[in-house]
Amino acid sequence: MRGVCLLIVLFSLYQVLLGARVTLEENEYQDKFTTWMHTHNKAYLSVDFFLKYRVFKDNVDFVNNWKGSHEVGLNAYSDLTPEQFAEIMLHPVATPTATPVTARDARHTSEQVDEEYFARQARATPTSVDWRTSGTVQAVKNQGQCGDCWAFATSGGVESITKISTGTLPSLSAQQLCDCVTDNSGCNGGNLQKALNYVIGTGGVNTDASYPYNAVQSTCKFNSANVGGSISGFTAVQQGSESALQTAVATQPVIISIAAGLQSFQAYKSGIFNDTACGTTGSDLNHAVMMIGYGTGSTGDYWILKNQWGTGWGMSGYMNIARNAGNRCGIASYAFAPTKGPIVWVFQDALGSGWSTATSGTVTALTACSAAQFGSCSYSATIAASSQLKFNYASLSTSGKSNLSFSVKSSAAGTLLVGLNNNQHMYYFSTTTTWGSQSFTLSQLGAPTTITSIIFQNYGSSTATFTFDTIFIN
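Predicted structure:
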């Protein structure tokens, strides 16, 4: 008898070593299902109960037999097959251009790429970033069984850029976007560019408190009096480039689309997701989320993804997904960064409405930019020693604004003074032949209540050509 028992044990061990499928006893499945239903507040009609139970058992078996690099587990979606999950939660979100264009701003077109913008704003790209640590990311939300991920990703991006620009982190209404972006399909999917263009055109997004979420598309109830956040434009990240995405995420949280159709994604629990079975092309991209950081762990480089499937999914609603792994699941295929608040955008539109130039001393070779040159023109001027270039405005209130930021490069290493209005508070800084970002608080520059001019003076001993771009007052 002992010999028989030993043979049974050895045979069982042999099956495990061969990778035999792990299953549970029926009472164990039943106990797990009952506990899971209680945890996730699930209740079914009698006609559905056994169908859901059978699907749940399959998902339990998937979790118990998973051998991938990340950990999977049960969550609120464990009563759905991958096909059912995809039908409810996942819809096409991307229609990327076949040939990406290169331009610095995306205010007037929905398919523009701005590589220099991110590089200049981020200065030096850090080795790791997590925007949660600075309070720049709102708490994880839950889209429920409504496929409006695009609305959550868009409103989340507006939340974060509002925090960066104003210091206040709002909670904004995904329900407004679901209801009001008529170019999209509500709970049946939507395009990120159309959503961002809507936010720009309508003047912003209402607060969650004034326009709460109900996971069903309904009549638009937007109220301009309840706007909690807005954007001035958005910038595309170079398609397929994880390096460009890293530079962008170092600047701000970014909205991305991703291929999320694998069961290993649906059941993700922790670790670095690195399932090579997911696609990377436009037809594969069926979910929209936020990319809010990146880093390196003991098992490799990763991105930090913020989902909106509740805190019971993943690592309290977040996922680490493989970085520098061939654009895993298309994370760099279709990404956008909302932009907000610059009074002077990029000098591509003749300085924008209301701005003009003036000079003091010897300033020549001024480059005039027109709207026809959109995407290809910065503002250059050859400035003699001690001479000034001024960007004048009739009167701009500084209420709610605290910083002046800009990018500049020069024909040779040099020094510039920057000041506002009457020259009484001017600061000097060095320039190089490559783009460099500069930022000053308005209090450093005299804390004016209104701005009538931005002044740049050549503080060097010889004439040099300076090129200005991406000037913000926010």
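Summary: The mean pLDDT is 83.
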